[in-house]
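ligand=pyridoxal-5'-phosphate
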Amino acid sequence: MHHFTADTDRLARAIVEYAIQRVRMDPPTLDGPVPLAELEERVGQTITRDGLGGLEALRVFVDELAPATISVDHPRFLSFIPAAPSEAAILFDLVVGASSMYGGSWLEGAGAVYAENQALAWLAGRAGLPDGAGGTFVQGGTAGNLSALAVARDVALRRRGGERPRRWVVLASEEAHPSVESAAGVMDVEVMPVRTDERHRMTGSSVSAAAEEVGSGDEVFAVVATGGTTNLGVVDDLESVARTCARNGWWMHVDGAYGLAALAADSARPLFAGIESADSFIVDPHKWLFAPFDCCALVYRRPELARRALAQHAAYLEPIHATGEWNPSDYAIHLTRRARGLPFWFALATHGTDAFAAAVGQSLDLARSAAGEIRGRPSLELLLEPTLSVVVFRRHGWVEEDYARWSRDLLERQVAFVLPSRLRGEVVGRMAFVNPRTTIEDVRLILDSME
Ligand SMILES: *Cc1c(COP(=O)(O)O)cnc(C)c1O
């Protein structure tokens, strides 16, 4: 198992050949889920005492498992938030996997950490955070939000001299991502929902209004603003939220898992005015910054506060702290970590930041073109001018079941994967663009299927 034999060599070539073929597919096959009973019948038991052998295990994957798995990078995958990893990032992910790098500490992973930190510094710089800002890459936005909120509470607790309030409260928009509620649940804190305005945005005054409903003896320790809501792509009014946070001494966290990628584009930067005041933010390179799963950048204005709250200490770990260098494990709820920021770093280093600005800009432009296309069709109605790259619309005369049937049919015919969503309770059409390979012709094809 641990020697590079002639068999290993054959397997290596087969695996690398398959990986290259998959990366080269343009477009990849869309594929889709297969019922469990069917997989059981077709694939059966793969774990045996003697093993299948690498080539046979690879065949099972290529012939049976991969086709039962949707290609998230298909140009007509427009559900949820898609992904569109670049060739460079995907290929470098193979290198990360091959290199047995421990990404938790400088002692073990200095080179990897150095590179990852440059990628984080680029993001922090785009946001306008001061020098000294930093953090780490974690698995996803959910883990990033939880870590940031845990730090925020630790800061508030210390400020109170360690005395706990009756209840801790975090303020977040009613359109915030459910991971905020989930993080609060894990931390056993309350989320006080903040009403959004007619443009679906949380503002400083709505934050203040929500805070007034917090009971006496309860303490607000953080506000979570969203830099691009997942459902609508709406950016909260970060500037007024920042002022409200500053006035009240609340930690300002910006959940930009999807939308903060648009910081890369100068044209979109004004949408995020106020982000430079954030105490922490997250953005998922695995969404709109063209990295493979799974990768979330978590950045703190004052990383030392995170280290104080989250660093793990034990006799056997003291050597990593003794270096006095940057240990990514100190900045989130994790210890061992894959150097999962490296594929993102590699693509940034390879192509340069202008290429990222252009690629993000393509989806911003496409969302506008798609909105125009929808406006021009009498059977459709645009429900919201796109702020970022999500478009929501109504098909006149359709009810929930019509959208569901249409969506199922598109996937069955392998045309597209476009799930409906909801806007104020109504089922609506929704398309989210992050893939520079998606064209307006793709959009037309999908809209034609609704006529
Ligand atoms: C996707 C998303 C999350 C969750 O991120 P994961 O990487 O899926 O854990 C959180 N917040 C927002 C705004 C998102 O779009």
